[in-house]
């Protein structure tokens, strides 16, 4: 029994030392396990190969970057590198339990501007002195609102104007700001230029005063300004439309002179339809008793032919009515819609308005036709 126990213990100890190895099935090509690993090694794995290639590329990029960084650090000045590190450290500071970026506070530290030491004195600009300004006597009288410049020349020639107590008949006399100009015992003052545009109604005469006591256009604009103004040009009693008033003698002379050929557009209402043949005759020009009269443009405005638009620059008396009468038509209604670029727009009949700054500048720089 003892021998049997010893043999059993020996077998037990031997079995504990050597691990258990399962028996593999064998085939003609060998073990199944060894064949499986051999097949895996023989077949290429595309995912694994791609991963290894990517790893190689990234590794090469890292090595090249490190080489470039090493070359830079070698070539750079060590002092600059030290200063760079120092500056980067100075960007931050500790405030309590927080780290603050110092550059945010720089906007509050604005530099104080110090004037330059070697500053040259600015050159004095030659501005005109109002005390040295002079005006021609006829212009001064015209701007005071008494009359036009041409009428002022007649007053000067007659000896009706006195300056500082002395009668002056010289047309080119220059008036200074301190001079006292009198007409019929009244002191004349240079007025501020005023420009008033009126939409004239019917049955008003274009004149400053009428001896027969009829209604004039001055009755319509008497509340427009305290300055003395007068009409530029004229409109017939039965003609309606735009009429300009001003105390600017130069402006009135320029707009009234035939050489400037100021544009005027009329709307004409006739007693019968206007034919195309007569329209062509009107455009070509008509020979009237005082010479050839030609319009700039004309057109039939209404489908029935009763309304005609006419544009012209000639300033002869009753020229529009005479043109249509020459062709055998009677003008029932005549309305001026445009004068020197000024339009009625929303200006009602019998109402007036002051010209705006843009319109005044345009009139002042108004040139002769064709310039």
Automatic annotation (TrEMBL):
For region Disordered, the annotated ranges are 1-96
Bias category Basic and acidic residues: which stretches? 1-14, 46-59, 73-96
Which residues are in the RNA-binding S4 domain? 135-193
Query: A GO term (biological process) for this protein?
Result: enzyme-directed rRNA pseudouridine synthesis
What's a single GO MF annotation on this record? RNA binding
Q: What is its EC number?
A: 5.4.99.-
Q: According to the UniProt record, what class of enzyme is this?
A: isomerase
Q: What is this protein called?
A: Pseudouridine synthase
What is the organism field in this record? Bernardetia litoralis (strain ATCC 23117 / DSM 6794 / NBRC 15988 / NCIMB 1366 / Fx l1 / Sio-4)
